[in-house]
Design brief:
Length: 306
Amino acid sequence: MGVGNRIEIKTCLLIIDLQNDFCSPGAPLFVRGRTGSAAMDDGNRTARFIRNNVNGIDQIFITLDSHMPMQIFHPCFWVDAQGNHPPPFTAITVEDVFSRRWMPNRACSDRLHTFGDYEELEQYCLHYVRTLRANGRDPLEIWPYHCLFGSSGHALVRIVEDAVYFHAMERNSNPIFVEKGFVPYTENYSVFEPEVGVHHDGELLVEQDLRFMDHLKKYDRVVVAGEAKSHCVRRSIESIVRRWRPEDLGRIYVLEDCMSSVVIADVADFTDEANEAFQKFAEAGIRLVKSTDDMASWPPPPVRAS
């Protein structure tokens, strides 16, 4: 729709998991990046972007990684033959589960009441790591306990929270929150779909949130910021690339300076892998932009299908 000679561009901002446990130094999964302060700086830049562009952002969507202690990627879910839990950042492979180097914790099976018996849970766990491998995913990563419901770590980081509600009051537009990651038996990096969506017997484990993805198609521009670039942001954009028409991908604008990759000292650095993935996204048509750029200078989005 146009007003005079000006074309109105309907824009939303999708903030992925800018929560205290990812963005606060000292938190269990602080995304330090290679600078040591990456996620904190990303949050500051995201907040400035919102305040500087409050009139150009029509709607803000916020995803919240939302967990409980007994989940497949947390230490208490697994034990070895001596009953020890894997330390955070342990990678559990198909071979580890098949050889019973790491086994699901019988206590989790008893308390979660999802599977009929422990042997069924063992079958599912082997199915899980095999499915990750078959889909070209990384091995199951054990993470520190993070983003637990009701904890301070689950909350949106304060500087972004303030900017989000400033936008809400300036634009009379409530932010929309989307929780993800609460199903105990799968990782859920993508905003839109789990890493593994079905049981070993073919029964649906968790539905894809394709309605949310379809809702984003109502906007000319979907601007993306969040953590971590190497995990939740990357997987979310991969979901879009798989399901949107190629000619629509130019409506996704990634704020490159408002996201960083996971770097774990002496363990892993996902930066190069993430940068390579985002270069492929750009080649597919997704726009890589900076939060400090004037939005008017960004490449125009393709025309939305009516």
